[in-house]
Every structure is written in C-alpha cells, then in structure tokens.
C-alpha cells in the first residue's frame, strides 16, 4: 500500500511541475507578455506576476535559500526543467556582470533533472534549491509560473515578476535595489 501511495505522490508531483511549465509557456506564447516593454527601452519584457503572495514571508526556507531570509535584497530566479523559456533565461545568467544578489530555484519532477539543469547552465555557484514538484514555491509563495523572479527584502516577498529577458529584469530590479539602499 505504501508503494501505491508513493507512486501516486510522484505522479501528482510530476503533474504539478508540468502544469507549472505549461502555464509559463502558454502565457509567453499567447502574447501575454507582448507590449509590456522593458525598463530602459530594452527588447525584453517584465510584468507583475499575478497570484504571488507579495508581502508574505515564508514560514520555512530550504537550506539552499536560507541566506535569502536575512539578506537586504535578493532576487530568486524561478526556472522549470520543462520550460523552453527557462532554458533561454538560465543561459543568460552567466552574462550578468554581478550575480551576488541572485539565487535560483529549479522546479522539477525529480532531483536528477534539477541537478542536470543546474550543471548545464552553470548555476551551482549561486545559492539554489531544487524544488521537486514545485511544492515549496507554490505552497509558500503561491507561484506556479516560470520563468519568474521573486524579489525579497529581509525575507519578505516584495515583488514577483514574469520576465523574458534577464537584462530587462536586472534593469527593473536594480533601481529598486538602489531605492532601498542595498550596497
């Protein structure tokens, strides 16, 4: 009976990850991000993410993201291993001049796929968490879309954004960083 329960749980976790990726892809492909424009006139788009629990503070933090809970300002990039837009965006992380304010959360169906994604995009040097089933980010923050960026100040979610271009995202976030006085 416990094997049946375990198998059922694995199927449900897989379905959540696939749904997470499908929602992001559908939104991006349906033109949902067109016309939003990028701060500074860039070609990428950044929009507010509906449904995220902005203003909330997670009750529990994964070990890999523990420093986000106390940092002045951190941006957690949420990627899914089943999302083509996430593959592109994750490949842009290495192009950033400064990544010290970023962390990564990988929503995936299993640990091995998440680790492969991290290795393939050389993200292991950043604080990170492989979120099997997308459970933590969905339960704690109400986020089920990728690629997205979660902006935290002292562990409180202050903004949740959908993005198509990491440079446009940085242009949107770093003026916020300067406004809050983070060095």
The rough form would be described as globular
CATH architecture assignment name = 3-Layer(aba) Sandwich
CATH class: Alpha Beta
Report the total helices. 5
Name the features.
183 residues; alpha/beta; Glutaredoxin; 6-stranded mixed β-sheet; 5 helices; 20% strand; globular
Task: Give a short overview.
The protein is an alpha/beta fold and 183 residues long. The chain contains five helices and six strands, in the order H-E-E-H-E-H-E-H-E-E-H. The protein has one domain (2-180): Glutaredoxin.
Q: What do you see in this structure?
A:
- The structure is a single chain.
- The protein has 183 residues and is an alpha/beta fold.
- It has a single domain, classed as Glutaredoxin.
- Helices cover 38% and strands 20% of the residues.
- It has a six-stranded mixed β-sheet, sandwiched between helices.
- β2 (74-80), α2 and β3 (102-108) form a beta-alpha-beta unit.
- The protein is globular.
- Mean pLDDT is 83; it is low at 33-42.
Question: What's the layout of helices and strands?
Answer:
Blueprint: H1 2-29, E1 46-48, E2 74-80, H2 84-92, E3 102-108, H3 111-120, E4 128-132, H4 135-141, E5 148-153, E6 156-163, H5 166-180
Parallel strand pairs: 2-3, 3-4
Antiparallel strand pairs: 1-6, 2-5, 5-6
